[in-house]
Design goal:
- There is one protein chain.
- The protein is mainly beta and about 600 residues long.
- It is about 10% helix and about 35% strand.
- It contains six helices and 35 strands.
- Strands 1, 3, 4, 6, 11, 12, 13 and 15 form an eight-stranded antiparallel sheet that branches.
- A hairpin with an 8-residue loop joins strand 3 and strand 4.
- About 35% of the residues are buried.
């Protein structure tokens, strides 16, 4: 009976529509709940927005068929005193039944960033602004008592209270913590335990997806004030539509009465990435709220190297958000089938040509060389040698006899490709002498082997004549390249610039900095402009930001990825410099 009286009072004071039948996952003991069953303004909420179209029912919700999507359009400014900031907020009127001095309450709500969400540039301090907001009752506006809000780097929770209503994070009653990067198309399930107070006995605990992320003790109301609820999409003007989805908001007296059970994860359609490059396919997959799975290489005569041949699950399949999509990527056309070089030594040039063509090979260079043992017009040697496996269509070079040399004449032997020692032995064995030896770099002939000979192989010369050689000294040293300047660039941009200049990224060290933005390069080694060998490594020192800071209002608990513990907990507590910038914005957004 007492519970019924409490509900009746809540209806009268809130001016709420009749409560909808409780769903399976919302306790019947909840004092108040809203799942936006009939319209965005169910449950006594009213809309602060440029038009009623800024709030629309969408589905499915977190644990029911519906949710509400709040969307701002460029130019949605000066709504309820928002100034130059875009706003589409659902507001619950102030009441004596919640958010007042001494009251102990449990709240739960769920929100989602749609797949089309695009974060603003890093230069924009605000991302969404307020997403869920217990706002102080002062007619002059000021710092919200509690707020879920997002920056370009992720979600944060902000807390304020104490003697005076202020707009500055430097206020002794101000406290904030970082939650971590934003993930699209995933429900964020928040649960709060709060004891409202303007004194030291205030309490605000927060859990995200079952993991405690905040444990604040201290003032969370301003003296003489209460607060009221805003389900929000309030942010600085970004020049494009911005949407966020809210579902299930519950108020109760115990944790059990607001706790949400498990429900099927949101589903998304697998995008069609067949034919796209691997990089473009990966981007499309992650933009759809999915993850890139395994990548297998497969040769193809129809799909260009580096492009996707197939994907699994197939395009159009409905899968859970965050599911992996596996790719098969083309490695290009398969190598030609090897062909054995036929033996044509001793055959006439015409017969050798016919045999080479019949083996699906081509006749390459033909060199004439005198011979006292091979009849004129017949093949003395071939290269590659008979029996070698070569690609179909490869060339076979021939040395063809020009007949016996004139009396007293000697044919210069073919020593190209031989080592210098072997070539010298062949020359002297032919009754000739080794002439000058010149060194020359080569990218095709191994160091120490003969590049050319003079006179050319097959030439008839007098016995004892000299044969000069040009011998490979190996590949020339790489041409020095100037190291690009990447200081101040993001790590990704620096990596791209280094690779584009023909270098590789070496060791990457992390270091805090109050002057270089988190994720950007502080220094590099070698320094910009230094000439280094192509392919050498460039080491980087990358900023982690200004380091963690702590508000004086109380202590916080955080660590790990609040969406499942997969990554390290990221703290986005502001440094002194960033605090100054944020403070300016807080002063500009009085509501």
């Amino acid at each position: 009976m007492n519970l019924l009286r409490a509900i009746a009072v809540a209806v009268a004071i809130f001016m709420l529509a009749p409560l909808q039948p409780a769903r399976a996952q919302i306790s019947p003991n909840a004092v108040w709940s809203c799942e936006f069953t009939n319209s965005p303004t169910d449950c006594g909420l009213y809309l602060e927005a440029a038009a009623s179209t800024r709030a629309a029912l969408v589905g499915p919700g977190r644990d029911g068929p519906t949710a509400v999507q709040l969307t701002t359009q460029p130019g949605d400014i000066n709504i309820a005193g928002s100034g130059s900031n875009d706003r589409a907020d659902l507001v619950l009127a102030r009441s004596s039944t919640y958010c007042n001095q001494g009251q102990d309450e449990w709240w739960a709500h769920s929100l989602m960033f749609p797949p089309g969400y695009v974060p603003p540039p890093v230069a924009a301090v605000w991302n969404w602004g307020a997403l869920f907001d217990f706002h102080n009752s002062s007619p002059g506006g000021g710092q919200p008592n509690f707020m879920v809000y997002a920056t370009p780097t992720g979600l944060e929770l902000h807390m304020a209270g104490g003697a005076n209503t202020v707009n500055l994070p430097s206020d002794p009653g101000y406290y904030s913590i970082g939650i971590g990067p934003i993930t699209k198309n995933v429900w964020y399930d928040f649960v709060y335990h709060v004891k409202w107070s303007s004194g030291s006995d205030g309490l605000f605990q927060a859990w995200l997806n079952g993991r405690q992320v905040m444990n604040y003790s201290g003032p969370n109301l301003y003296v003489g004030q209460s607060c009221y609820l805003k389900i929000a999409n309030y942010h600085t003007e970004l020049g494009l539509p911005v949407s966020v989805v809210h579902s299930r908001v519950v108020l109760a007296h115990t944790q059990a009465d607001v706790q949400i059970g498990s429900s099927p994860p949101p589903t998304v359609l697998v995008p069609n990435v067949v034919g796209q490059t691997q990089a473009a396919a990966t981007s499309a997959i992650t933009s759809a709220g999915l993850t890139a799975g395994t990548v297998a290489q497969q040769s193809s005569t129809t799909v260009a190297s580096g492009s996707v041949i197939s994907e699994s699950p197939a395009a159009g399949t409905s899968v859970a958000s965050g599911a992996a999509v596996n790719l098969v990527v083309s490695s290009g056309a398969p190598p030609p089938t090897p062909v054995a070089v036929p033996n044509v030594v001793g055959q006439t040039q015409a017969a050798a040509t016919s045999a080479i063509s019949a083996a699906a090979l081509t006749v390459g260079a033909i060199t004439q060389q005198s011979s006292s043992t091979v009849a004129s017009g017949n093949v003395i040697s071939e290269s590659p040698a008979a029996g070698a496996s070569v690609a179909k269509g490869s060339a076979v070079n021939l040395v063809v006899s020009s007949g016996a040399p004139a009396p007293g004449q000697v044919a210069v032997p073919n020593v190209v490709g031989e080592t210098e020692a072997t070539a010298t032995s062949a020359i002297t064995s032919a009754g000739l002498t080794a002439g000058t030896v010149t060194q020359q770099s080569s990218t095709t002939v191994a160091s120490g082997n003969v590049i050319t000979e003079s006179p050319a192989a097959g030439t008839s010369v007098a016995s004892g004549a000299a044969v000069s050689l040009v011998v490979s000294s190996g590949a020339p040293p790489p041409t020095p390249v100037a190291v690009p300047n990447v200081v101040g660039q993001t790590q990704a941009a620096a990596t791209s610039a280094i690779s584009g200049a023909g270098f590789t990224v070496g060791a990457v060290a992390q270091e805090s900095s109050t002057t270089v933005a988190s994720g950007s390069v502080i220094s590099q080694n070698p320094a910009a402009g230094v000439d280094s060998a192509s392919g050498s490594a460039v080491d980087l020192v990358v900023s982690t930001g200004g380091g963690a800071s702590s508000g004086a209002g109380g202590g916080g608990v955080g660590g790990g990825d609040a969406l499942g513990g997969g990554g390290a907990f990221d703290s986005f507590t502001l440094s002194a410099l960033l605090s100054s910038l944020i403070g300016g914005l807080w002063r500009a957004r009085r509501i």
